[in-house]
Specification:
The protein has 200 residues and is mainly alpha-helical. It is built from nine helices and no strands. The protein is globular.
């Protein structure tokens, strides 16, 4: 259970820090200045805020992987390379999820609340201790909206089962869905950045 729970804690921290970073600009009224510095590009503005964090989170994720599989000698029956790729994609996938929440609800309090709720529920919904197959269908389906569930499945495929990458390809594709998902609602975040109004 330790690899799943450790990744779950990392996901929760990424969720909260990303939501705070993006929505704090609106709360403090500095989002308009940030948007102007980015030449009106919300993509550049968000990237400037999140890229340094991405690097730090990736370093922490690699430290997590090293601690588990190198230092503590957890089973590794598959490819180190593909598990490392999964770990590095896990970080921007979590950021993408939190950024999407911020785009839909660009309010600091609500965004943090939703990210905290989904991050905490991930410990049960991601099927670390209770299989999705045994959950009610209306509950189990929510496990697929969590990046940590994808990480957990790849961990099982690569580290425990040691199966070929071919069988995990859809999970890796799911990472990119999480990463690109905010682009569908970025226009909404730009509108709120251009005219910041904080609703307590």
């Amino acid at each position: 259970l330790n690899p799943g729970f450790t990744a779950g804690v990392l996901e929760l921290m990424i969720f909260l820090m990303t939501a705070y970073t993006i929505c704090e600009e609106i709360k403090r009224g500095t989002s308009r200045s940030l948007l102007e510095q980015a030449s009106g590009s919300i993509i550049k503005a968000v990237t400037a805020r999140l890229l340094p964090q991405t690097i730090i989170w990736c370093v922490m994720a690699m430290a997590m992987e090293s601690w588990l599989f190198a230092w503590n000698h957890y089973p590794m029956n598959g490819s180190w390379l593909w598990l490392t790729v999964s770990t590095l994609l896990f970080v921007p996938a979590c950021q993408g999820f939190a950024l999407f929440v911020c785009c839909v609800i660009p309010n600091l309090r609500f965004a943090l609340s939703i990210c905290a709720l989904t991050g905490v529920l991930a410990f049960s919904l991601a099927a670390f201790s209770f299989p999705v197959q045994s959950m009610y269908g209306s509950i189990g389906i929510f496990s697929w909206i969590l990046p940590v569930r994808i990480y957990f499945l790849i961990y099982i495929d690569q580290a425990l089962d040691g199966i070929a990458l071919y069988y995990s390809r859809f999970y890796y594709a799911a990472y990119f869905i999480f990463i690109l998902l905010p682009l569908t609602m970025m226009w909404r975040l730009k509108r709120h950045y251009a005219t910041p109004v904080y609703l307590p």
